[in-house]
Amino acid sequence: MLLTELSVTEFAQVLGSSAPAPGGGSAAALSAANGISLTKMVCELTIGKKKYAEFEEEITAIRDRSQQLQDELLEAIDKDTEAFNQVSAVFSLPKETEEDKAKRSQALQEALKNATLSPYHMMELIHESLLVTQKAIGKSNTNAASDLGVAALNLKAGLQGAWLNVLINLSSIKDTDFVQDHQEKGQALLDEGGQLADHIYQTILSSLT
Known about the structure:
The longest helix is centred in the middle third of the chain and has 39 residues, at 98-136. The protein has 6 helices and no strands. With 209 residues, it is mainly alpha-helical. It has one domain: Formiminotetrahydrofolate cyclodeaminase monomer, up-and-down helical bundle (Four Helix Bundle (Hemerythrin (Met), subunit A), Up-down Bundle), CATH 1.20.120. The termini are far apart.
């Protein structure tokens, strides 16, 4: 059963259970998916309105890309848990001989890299989601302005959550080039995305006060 096929209540219950997965990574993906879904909603509430006719083409493009990002972030909910399960599965491999131990160690490193790439890709999707959300400001239905602010908050939470999951996996990876590359690129996504989210939120806050 896919996590995305569970009801909200069922997902919350399994998230709060003693099962180690789903965990923070899947929760981060869900938060981000909710964020870009709100951006899409604002676009839907703008398209077809005379008041915003001059922005129709741009808002429609934002809506369409938001839909694609929503789909990818929803997929990330299950992908993150699958990646964690792959790491867990390595610990059941035999370790009786030196050859067993070498194979087990290699398998663990590969699984950890995959478990890093999952939240890292999530960060890339969230960064783009924030750029897309920013484009809707000033061109979308002002009656739903607060929803863009909430979108930014959800996306930022997802971004920060994904980053924590990148870091915890990098801490056990021995490939120093891989570690340095993803630390640097991940930090850049975090910094730029965080600033974008804060800018969106503050812009919306100012418009409402």
